[in-house]
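Observation: inputs received (chain + zinc ion).
Thought: call the complex predictor directly.
Action: predict_structure
Action Input:
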Amino acid sequence: MKNKIDALKLASQPLTGNCSGVYFLFDEQELVYVGEGWNCFLRVAEHTKKDSDKVFTKWNFIEIRTKKERKRVEREEISRFKPKYNKGLYREPFMNNANGKACSICGKWHRLEEYTYGNRANRSYCKKCNKEERAAYRKGGTSAAREYRENKRSKWKSA
Ligand SMILES: [Zn+2]
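Observation:
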């Protein structure tokens, strides 16, 4: 038995490092989610857990080494196909990096004007989220504000 295990050990496959890319979850013929990761196998395995809200029957991925390029392709494909489990990340057609960006709380794309308030430009939260976060803070302090942010983010951000 020991020899057998030693042989298995030598031939075993690493879980890391060699499948970095953008992955696609399909429910039959429908593309339902696009994600990226330095290890697609692990990320897809996470989506198969019981508490995952994603239903899919097949998956595939394209290998992309650099994180910057993976993020770019992920955004592009989400924006093109608007898969139903990618909540909020895709932008409206009239928006691009020059005239808008995604709110870091709700994940929705807004025009840049939406991020200028209180005499400051280029904030990271949209007005609505800023207002709601401050309301949470007034009620329960820092921890309530954090809880508000994490709650909203968990609705559209994958871990
Ligand atoms: Zn927002």
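Thought: report the result.
Final Answer: Residues 99-159 form one domain. The two ends are 39 Å apart (CA to CA).
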